[in-house]
């Protein structure tokens, strides 16, 4: 069974999509539990008694299969996705072209950000000539 098929099955019966469905599929993969063995219709029916879909599914999976999808793991995963890695930002910078890079290094930036600053990275992606990311396009002064 493929990973994508598991995501489709989880989405179909629970209504969860995106990060929630991916976290469930990844947890099943880590525990070596086949998605086919889970009674998804029961989980889909029981989840509405808990106030939210996500809460109901998490509760059922923890009680029946020992899969703990705590909030800290979900927020940690979201944080990792939001913060761009230094290598991916370097790839974006290199695709800009030689002339753009030279002009960027000559100009003084409005602001300089770390690669972990999500707002700064977002500004830099819109206007890379106005902002700098430490370790990517900041001029190194000795």
Share of helix, binned:
55-70%
Rounded to the nearest angstrom, the radius of gyration is 22 Å
Tally of discrete structural domains:
2
Task: List the total number of helices.
Answer: 8
Count of DSSP E strands? 2
User: Structural class from helices and strands?
Assistant: mainly alpha
The fraction of residues in strands falls at under 5%
Helix and strand element order: HHHHHHHEHE
Question: What value does the average pLDDT take?
Answer: 75
Q: What does the overall shape look like?
A: elongated
In order across it, which strands form the biggest sheet?
Answer: 1-2
CA-to-CA gap between the ends? Answer: 56 Å
Verbal overview:
The structure is a single chain. With 142 residues, the protein is mainly alpha-helical. The chain has two domains: 3-80, no CATH class; 84-133, no CATH class. 59% of the residues lie in helices and 4% in strands. It has eight helices and two strands, in the order αααααααβαβ. Strands 1-2 form a two-stranded parallel ribbon. Strand 1, helix 8 (118-126) and strand 2 (131-133) form a beta-alpha-beta unit. It is elongated, with a radius of gyration of 22 Å. The mean pLDDT is 75.
